Amino acid sequence: CVIMCGLGRAGGDRQKELADSEGRGRVLAKTVAGLPPRVVKGTPAGQHFGIGGVWARAMTPAARPSWVKFSKAKVCGEGSPCTSTSVHDADTKYAAGPVYLAHIDDWRAVAEQWWRMMPRVHAQYPQLLAEMYAFTMAVANLTLPWALVSHFMVSDPGTMSPTESWPWIEDLTDSPDGPSAVCNGATATTLPAATRDRINGPSLPTVLHYCQRYLAADHIFAKRKVPHDLFSCEGQVPTLMPFNATTILRELGPKPSVKAIRTSFMLCHLIPMVNSALVSYRRDVCNETQVR
Fold it and tell me: How do residues 68-122 score in pLDDT, each as one tens digit?
């Protein structure tokens, strides 16, 4: 699996992992800033999350309140590698989150450690992201460093962290369409025109990590509001999620905030993608031709 690939202009220092000397994204044949060219055994890759240093500071004066009494030894074992992992290494080598890419042999080793550590982490930290902390502790205990990159996904429109590839989305505003490029040409089942142009179009993240609540112009996408039986052949023919690019673009306006640009991008991609998948599912699996 190639780690570095992309088309369009890369933006922001954290996204230079994909840019050539002129700042243009390219399918690269050599390493950039120390990144390996591809995933192989012993060299996994993942999206960089700011979670490594949190558990590494446990039981130190710098620990967050929930981690003051957290024992790494109870999770990894007394004297194990994770108990002596530095904050720097935890953040720069092991702080991987979705998207994860690894050789199957590495996954077997990681899965065994992760499975064993997960309940131990949750017993001391029964909160959101416990499973992700358990993952980073597992790979640290294996001393299996990950190539951490920021271009694999976007998720939180309000984040100030450089570890999401939002600069690429913001680059769309430099196109002739301006901010409206994040949604122009989108329909209830069709992605925006700029996204569909994979020859001259922008660099884009691999994954839309829809772990937030996206709200604009009377449109909403929230993972907990998606019906659990959406992809099913039983019951009534489902209704497509409502979508109107015109109203989103009208609210976006000519000088939107960064958060508005990002939120509109997510809505103008997530809703058409889910609707398109639903139409395909009902047609190919349920042998139906009509979705309301």
Answer: 999 999 999 999 999 999 999 999 999 999 999 999 999 999 999 999 999 999 9
Residue pointed to by tokens 């991987």: 96
**C-alpha dihedral, 274 to 277 to 279 to 285, nearest 10°:** -140
Task: Note the pTM of the prediction, 2 decimals.
Answer: 0.84
First to last CA, the chain: 39
Residue 70 C-beta-side C-alpha neighbours within 13 Å: 30
C-beta separation of 26 from 20 below 8 A? yes
154: part of which helix (H) or strand (E)?
strand 153-154
* Residues paired with residue 208 on neighbouring β-strands, in sequence order: 154
What number of other Cβ atoms are within 10 A of residue 41's Cβ?
A: 10
Residues across the chain: 292
In sign, the C-alpha dihedral spanning 129, 131, 137, 140 is negative
Three-state DSSP at 162 gives coil
pLDDT in tens, 145-174: 999 888 888 999 998 877 888 888 888 888
- Separation in Å, CA 4 to CA 15, 89, 141, 212, 259: 11, 22, 27, 26, 27
Its sign, for the CA torsion 43, 40, 168, 218, is negative
Instruction: Determine the Cα angle at 136 with ends 130 and 140, to 5°.
Output: 140
Cis peptide before 279 (omega within 30 of 0): no
Can you tell me the distance from the alpha carbon of 71 to that of 239, in angstroms, rounded to the nearest whole number? 49
What token pair was written down for 14? Answer: 């954290």
How many Å apart are CA 29 and CA 16, to the nearest integer? 15
